[in-house]
Design brief:
The chain has 153 residues and is α+β, with helices and mostly antiparallel strands. It has four helices and seven strands; from the N terminus they run βααβββαβαββ. 29% of the residues lie in helices and 37% in strands. The chain has a seven-stranded mixed sheet with strand order 1-2-3-4-5-7-6, sandwiched between helices. It binds coenzyme A (COA).
């Protein structure tokens, strides 16, 4: 696969099967098809897929929320097909999620996310992009599985 041919677009309904496959291969406790369907239909969601030729190789999904008068983009999920990792696709998807949030919601100044504290590769990616560790959330992913809340302003 040549990542020079990588492109990123809004998720199409026909991408959801590949998104689910990547999700299942990436997480111990994957989101279900119903969750992805809900995200796909939601108007406040920025759901993007990365593809090379016709193959979906990763996705990102973010939701824009307003809390206490502040607009925040929440990165709900980001994953790359295990066979396509360490080729810069995760970085491209993250770059794209940030710029899509800013462009679609100019009032959005903050992007936040939760990541498992033992997910070193994802934490390294977010730190590289300037995300800061904000606080730990105990048992966020279930008993003994803590999350690190991270934020990019
Ligand atoms: C995290 C993930 C999206 C990264 O995707 P990727 O395409 O491999 O990332 P990139 O090739 O763009 O790597 C960018 C940076 O991430 C970090 N990184 C990625 N994989 C890493 C690994 N295995 N070990 C350490 N750092 C890693 C590095 O800082 C890397 O920069 P470098 O190549 O200059 O060292 C991918 O590993 C993945 O899908 N993991 C499973 C799902 C997941 O954990 N998602 C995050 C949920 S919060």
């Amino acid at each position: 696969m040549n990542t020079e041919d990588l492109a990123i677009r809004n998720c199409k309904v026909t991408d959801l099967r590949a998104v689910q496959r990547i999700e299942n291969a990436s997480f111990d406790d994957p989101y279900t098809p119903m969750v992805f369907w809900g995200l796909y239909l939601s108007r406040d969601t920025i759901f993007r897929t990365a593809f090379v030729q016709d193959n979906i190789v990763g996705y990102s999904v973010s939701k824009v929320e307003t809390r206490n008068g502040k607009t925040v983009a929440h990165l709900i999920s980001l994953a790359v097909d295990p066979l396509s990792r360490r080729k810069g696709i995760g970085s491209k998807l993250l770059e794209d999620a940030i710029s899509q949030s800013k462009n679609s919601y100019p009032e959005c100044k903050v992007i936040e996310l939760e990541v498992r504290t033992d997910n070193e590769s994802a934490i390294a990616l977010y730190l590289k992009f300037g995300f800061r560790k904000i606080r730990l959330i105990s048992n966020y992913y279930g008993r003994g599985k803590d999350a690190q809340l991270m934020e990019l302003s």
